[in-house]
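Section 5: illustrative case.
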């Protein structure tokens, strides 16, 4: 089921993102830019099971590469240095970040053809992305380390929408 995440996604709508950034301690100038930009999210998987997630905009581009279930060092778009673990649980891509004694969890799931992103713990944001293209040239999810159970649907408040 991970293959459903692979592709290029465009930010469609966002709710409560400023409050989330404020809770993280992001300064006003960066928060204003963060609320204006509409980044593309590009997700690919190589033949070795390494996932690449690239958030690309005219303001800033960030990229992380990881294997599911393995901790890695991440520098976030707001310049936090976190220890991060990505897992696939019940059809959701779960990203757990820890830094300076704090923790946040980002859940991504495909619902009605949209990539929904829910940010919790530090603040609650729901993001929705629309797929720009079903391009899977970045890789496949045939690697044994990438598997998934049945998808679970859930409705949560607040949002950021990404669309195909």
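Designed sequence:
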């Amino acid at each position: 089921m991970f293959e459903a995440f692979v592709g290029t996604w465009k930010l469609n709508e966002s709710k409560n993102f400023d409050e989330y950034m404020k809770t993280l301690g992001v300064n006003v100038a960066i928060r204003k830019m963060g609320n204006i930009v509409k980044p593309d999210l590009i997700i690919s998987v190589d033949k070795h099971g390494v996932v690449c997630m690239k958030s690309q905009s005219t303001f800033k581009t960030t990229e992380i590469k990881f294997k599911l279930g393995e901790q890695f060092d991440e520098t976030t778009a707001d310049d936090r240095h976190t220890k991060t673990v990505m897992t696939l649980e019940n059809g959701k891509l779960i990203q757990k970040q820890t830094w300076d004694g704090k923790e946040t969890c980002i859940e991504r799931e495909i619902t009605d053809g949209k990539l929904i992103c829910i940010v919790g713990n530090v603040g609650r944001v729901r993001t929705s992305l629309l797929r720009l293209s079903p391009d899977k040239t970045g890789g496949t999810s045939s690697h044994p380390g990438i598997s998934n159970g049945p998808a679970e649907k859930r409705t949560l408040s607040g949002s950021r929408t990404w669309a195909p």
